[in-house]
Write a structure and sequence with these properties.
Largest sheet: 5 strands, parallel
Strand content: 5-15%
Distance between the termini: 21 Å
Shape: elongated
Strand order of the largest sheet: 2-1-3-4-5
Number of strands: 5
Order of helices and strands: EHEHEHEHEHHHHHH
Structural class: alpha/beta
Length: about 200
């Protein structure tokens, strides 16, 4: 379940956003109405997505706040604001938000602005889970060999890179094939690694 932090100083708007988020996707939502509440929430909640209003009636605006948070936290970002000036948008985009939603908010604006970001986070989470499962099946050295096979390195090239003998690499290849339930045909591992290259890059 995706963890989402809403930073919005108007509770009615924050609750509306929360309601829409939960209709888009199963998620765990926390609301911070002030910078103090953000600082209290972040360490334990560790959000994957932060929705932040730029115009906060606080010691920092949303852009300055997010800039300070990104020093020590990693999350996808969506700015929500009534500001439409080019200067504000340029300042906001220096922080590389995944999206930017202009107020007044409604269901369709929120849906269009947030759904792609949630899908992106879900895909990354799935990939991390998949690589974790793969790491349970094969050893770290076998994972390194898989990554080199994905780069279409030969057994001899892999042996040279890893400072191992070609016969050791061949043994590893046979072991990996068994663990992944692949056939023993010559290109079985290459075919698998090319199909799963994005998974291998994740780890």
């Amino acid at each position: 379940m995706i963890r989402i932090l809403i930073i919005e100083d108007e509770i009615v708007i924050a609750r509306f956003i929360e309601q829409q988020l939960k209709s888009i996707s199963p998620c765990e939502v926390e609301i911070a109405l002030s910078i103090d509440e953000v600082e209290q929430s972040l360490p334990d909640f560790s959000p994957q997505l932060v929705l932040c209003d730029i115009e906060l009636n606080d010691k920092l605006d949303g852009i300055e706040l997010i800039k300070s948070l990104k020093v020590s936290h990693s999350f996808e970002l969506v700015f929500i604001t009534s500001y439409q000036t080019i200067n504000t948008i340029n300042r906001a985009f220096e922080l590389e938000p995944a999206n930017y939603i202009i107020k007044p908010l409604d269901e369709s604006r929120l849906y269009a602005g947030i759904l792609p970001v949630i899908k992106k986070i879900s895909a990354h989470s799935d990939a991390r889970n998949d690589i974790a499962e793969l790491q349970k099946q094969v050893s770290q050295s076998e994972l390194n060999i898989l990554r080199l096979i994905a780069k279409q390195k030969t057994t001899k090239e892999i042996a040279d890179i890893l400072n191992l003998s070609p016969s050791t690499i061949k043994n590893h290849r046979h072991s990996i094939c068994r663990k992944l339930n692949l056939g023993e045909e010559t290109n079985a591992l290459l075919t698998w690694t090319l199909k799963n290259h994005k998974l291998l890059e994740t780890g």
